[in-house]
C-alpha cells in the first residue's frame, strides 16, 4: 500500500478530509515514523481510537522477530541508550535509540517518546512495531506503546553499556561512549536547519584507530590534544568510513590521563575493501600500474575536476590549471585498490616539482613523459601506503597521506644483502 491508499483508508475510517490525512501521514513518514505509528498518531489526533488496524501484538523472542512481524511485545534488557533530536512538524522532538537483548538475540530500537530506558534494566515493551532499518528488523515504540519494568530481570549474554574502542564502531551505532584524544579539530560554519551554525569537525584517535568526527553542538572540551570521554555519540558513514557524531545530548569529560594514539591500522587489502572503507589505514602491496590521468595534469579552475583536452565535464572548455598526481594500482595478492597521491607525495615520487614537470613536458613536447618517469620509478616496486580508503561505485580508492617503499621490499632486501656481501 502506498501513502495514498493508507490516507484513503484512514480518511474514510475517521470521516475526515483525505488530503488533510495524507499531508499528516506524509509529514510523519518524512521523519521516518513507521506508517503504522503514523496512522495511529492521526487516529488519536482525530479521536478515532485504536481502530481495526491492530491485530493484537503477541509476545516474541527477539531472535524470532523479522521485518514481517508487525506489532510485538518483548521483554528485554536495555543494552544501550542514545539520545537524538529530530525536527518534526516544526518542533524539535527527542528520540531514544539503541539496542535491546533477550536470551535469544539483540535488536535495535527507536523510541519516539522519552521512555524510562536505562542500560542494564529489564523492561517489557508492549505494542512495539517492527520496521526495516538497513535491511534488518528494528523495534519502534511510541505513544501507543507501553514500557514497564519487567517482573524478573533477564540475564543476557551481551555487554551492557555503550563503551567501545574506535575500531569497534560501525555506521548505525547509537548511544556509544568513547575515550579518545582529539587529534585534529577545526570550527566550521554550515548552513544548518536553523540557518548558519558553527560546528566542530576533525579527527579522534585511541590506541585502536583514528576516525573523523563532527560535533553539531560545539563542546569546548574538544580542543586539539585533549584526552576526553565522550558519552552518547552516534555513528554515521562518511565517505565510506564510520564517522563519530557528537550532539547536544553528548557529554564530554576531560580525562586525567592522556589517551595514547596507536599507529595506523595495517590491513590486508581484501579486509580493508571488504569493510567498505577504512580511515587511516596502512596497506602494503606492489604497484602494478600507474593509471592514465597521472603525472602532469590540468584541473578545472571552477571545480577542481581533472580536465581532458581542456574540457571539464561540468564546465565545458576551461583554462585548466597544472597539477601533479599519481593514480597507482596497488595489489597485495588479496585485492587491488587505486592509491591516489596528491601533489606533495607525487613530487617526492617524481623527484621534482611542478616547474620541473612543465619543463620536461615542454622538452618532449608531450606531457605524458612525466607519468612515464613516475612509472619507471614505482611500477613493480613494493610500497606501504597510508591513507583513507573509500569504496563506492567508482571502485576502491585510497587517498594517500604517506607513501614509502616497503621495508621488506625484495629489491631493497637484495641490495642490503649485496651490501653485506661487499662489506
Ligand atoms: Zn569544472
UniProtKB/TrEMBL annotation:
Keyword vocabulary terms for this entry: DNA-binding
Keyword Disulfide bond: no
UniProt-listed InterPro entries: NA-bd_OB-fold, SOSS-B
Protein name: Single-stranded DNA binding protein
Protein source organism: Salarchaeum japonicum
One annotated GO biological process: response to ionizing radiation
Tagged with keyword DNA-binding: yes
A GO molecular-function annotation: DNA binding
